[in-house]
Amino acid sequence: MEQSTSADTAATLAAAGITVTEEGKARARAKLKAARERWTPELDAQVRKQLGLPARAA
Fold first, then answer.
1. Which whole-number Å values give the CA distances from 34 to 24, 27, 31, 43, in the listed order?
2. Which DSSP helix (H) or strand (E) runs through 35?
3. Residues 25/32, Cβ–Cβ less than 8 Å
4. What SS3 class is residue 56?
5. So what's the pLDDT on residue 48?
6. Rounded-to-integer distance, Cα 24 and Cα 28, Å
7. 8 Å CB contact between 20 and 10
8. Model pTM score
9. How far is 34 from 38, CA to CA, in rounded Å?
10. 10 exposed, middle or buried (CB, 10 Å; 0-12, 13-18, 19+)?
11. pLDDT tens digits along 7-51
12. Rounded Cα–Cα distance for residues 45 and 57 (Å)
């Protein structure tokens, strides 16, 4: 499986009519950071149980 580059991703999005801006990338990074900060071990366990996945090893 090939790993795409940032340029590949931008080109793919541009072909679909989606413009990638530095401001948009910064906004997306901030949203991902906030989501990571909200994610707790308890939430992880709850989601894994709901999906029928085994518990993570400690």
1. 15, 11, 5, 15
2. helix 22-38
3. no
4. coil
5. 95
6. 6
7. yes
8. 0.60
9. 6
10. middle
11. 898 899 999 999 989 999 999 999 999 999 999 999 999 999 999
12. 11
Return the H-helix or E-strand segment holding 29.
Answer: helix 22-38
Q: Determine the residue type at 28.
A: A
Determine the pLDDT at residue 2.
67
**Within 10 Å of residue 21's Cβ, how many Cβ atoms?**
8
Q: How many whole angstroms separate alpha carbon 6 and alpha carbon 21?
A: 12
What's the helix, strand, coil split of the chain in %, to 5? 65, 0, 35
